[in-house]
């Protein structure tokens, strides 16, 4: 079974009160060096079989039609989760 990761973020010109609260909280907790934060959404779409280009194309279509609001959000990433998992194992992220 394959999995596709879709990430959606507010457009830069859209106010992000959750991101602002996160940025403020980081500073209060002693995490210095962060100058801002934005909060987005992550979707994990499971598919039967491997993640092919056709699956990624279908995920892109779903992302623009259902998973995001194109007026206020951008789809910033659509990728095969198995590639992400392999990278995490190698780098121990």
TrEMBL record:
Q: In which pathway does it act?
A: Purine metabolism; IMP biosynthesis via de novo pathway; 5-amino-1-(5-phospho-D-ribosyl)imidazole from N(2)-formyl-N(1)-(5-phospho-D-ribosyl)glycinamide: step 1/2
| Gene Ontology biological-process entries | 'de novo' IMP biosynthetic process
Keyword terms, alphabetized: ATP-binding, Cytoplasm, Ligase, Nucleotide-binding, Purine biosynthesis
Keyword match Cell cycle: no
Among Pfam families, the record links this protein to:
PurS
In the UniProt record, which is one GO cellular component term?
cytoplasm
Does the keyword section mention Signal? no
Gene Ontology molecular functions: ATP binding; phosphoribosylformylglycinamidine synthase activity
InterPro entries, per the entry: PurS, PurS-like_sf
E.C. number(s) listed in UniProt: 6.3.5.3
Which residue windows are transmembrane per the record?
A: none
Which subcellular locations apply to this protein?
Cytoplasm
Assembly information from the UniProt record: Part of the FGAM synthase complex composed of 1 PurL, 1 PurQ and 2 PurS subunits.
Q: Which family does it belong to?
A: Belongs to the PurS family.
What job does this protein perform? Part of the phosphoribosylformylglycinamidine synthase complex involved in the purines biosynthetic pathway. Catalyzes the ATP-dependent conversion of formylglycinamide ribonucleotide (FGAR) and glutamine to yield formylglycinamidine ribonucleotide (FGAM) and glutamate. The FGAM synthase complex is composed of three subunits. PurQ produces an ammonia molecule by converting glutamine to glutamate. PurL transfers the ammonia molecule to FGAR to form FGAM in an ATP-dependent manner.
Name used for this protein in its record: Phosphoribosylformylglycinamidine synthase subunit PurS
Instruction: Quote the gene name from the UniProt entry.
Output: purS
């Amino acid at each position: 079974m394959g999995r596709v990761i879709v990430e959606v973020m507010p457009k830069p010109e859209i106010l992000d009160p959750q991101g602002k609260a996160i940025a403020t909280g980081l500073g209060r907790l002693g995490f210095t060096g962060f100058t801002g934060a934005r909060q987005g959404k992550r979707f994990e779409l499971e598919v039967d079989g491997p993640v092919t280009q056709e699956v990624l194309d279908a995920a892109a279509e779903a992302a623009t039609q259902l998973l995001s609001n194109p007026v206020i959000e951008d789809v910033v990433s659509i990728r095969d989760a198995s590639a992400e998992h392999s990278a995490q194992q190698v780098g121990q992220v």
